[in-house]
Amino acid sequence: MRLSGVGMVAGVVGRPIARSLSPAIHNAWLAAAGLDGVYAPLSVTAERFEGLVGALRGGSLRGLNVTAPFKESALALADEADPAARAAGAANLLLFGADGRVEARNTDGLGLMAALGEQAGAFQPVGATVVLLGAGGAAKGAAAILLAAGVDQLRVVNRTAERAEALAETLGPKATAHDWGALEQALDGAALLVNATTLGRSGESPLSLPLERMRGDAVVMDMIYHPLRTALLARAEAAGLAPVDGLAMLIGQARPSFEALFGAPPPARVDARRVALEAMA
Length: 281
Ligand code: NAP
What we know:
By secondary structure, the protein is an alpha/beta fold. The chain has 11 helices and 12 strands. It has helices at 22-33, 46-56, 71-77, 83-88, 108-119, 137-148, 161-171, 183-186, 231-238, 246-262, 272-280; strands at 8-13, 37-42, 61-66, 80-81, 93-96, 102-105, 129-133, 153-158, 175-179, 192-195, 219-222, 242-244. The protein has a 6-stranded mixed beta sheet, with helices on both faces. Strands 9-8-7-10-11-12 form a 6-stranded parallel beta sheet, with helices on both faces. It is globular. The model has no long low-confidence stretch (mean pLDDT 96).
């Protein structure tokens, strides 16, 4: 790594942050591109997040990726936001301008579409029926980009029914809310299932669903990447469906983040997945 006094500094903020794979990925890209820069992990308490953003305004830090639990606060603290961040109600990227202004962006949706393209290239969003589990920030971003890609029916299923209803209402006539208890029926004929809940993360209960109710060529996407092969993805594979993992999405959101932070695309010769898997091991 080459870092001078005018080196570009960026990072990722979340709590906890120790298991974030973003520093490994971005620093590998920086090194391969020969850029004078560094990408660091940062953590603050919820009470101090606003103070951190305030302190960084107009300084030399290029920007921050933002992860749980600060994505909604990040959007609220920004002076401007791109349509993806507004649609998600959350930002995963804050860019600090020299004039003191802060711009919020959300690249998670791009990450989701990149993951589908990479691991389930045959999936056609146009006219598809999609089941979306969750109604948090990640689900909102996914819903917006899937509908923009041409999905015909988006079935939003969430543990807290009111949140599913509120989300479906903002999305227009192609989105419908379904009770958590009706999840199995919601799978009928679906071409894509996206898990945007925390269910299935290491230490939490796995999702076990009758995936055979979906189309024979259906795709099952899990945003979780700890563990990489969730119980849901293992079931999808066993049922002969195409699994798409959260690591592909993570790398897919990191690419446009890197370009926005450092002004150059990530070098294609870096195997970002291998870098991330080594960091996970
Ligand atoms: P969030 O805003 O906190 O939303 C969490 C969602 O999980 C809510 O819909 C919540 O339902 C649901 N949930 C939590 N515990 C549950 C349980 N026991 N049973 C059923 N549902 C439960 O989080 P988020 O930011 O949207 O993130 C969601 C997931 O996506 C996380 O696992 C996150 O790590 C992952 N993610 C991955 C990437 C990537 O690049 N791979 C990017 C973004 C997010 P209620 O509304 O009922 O609470």
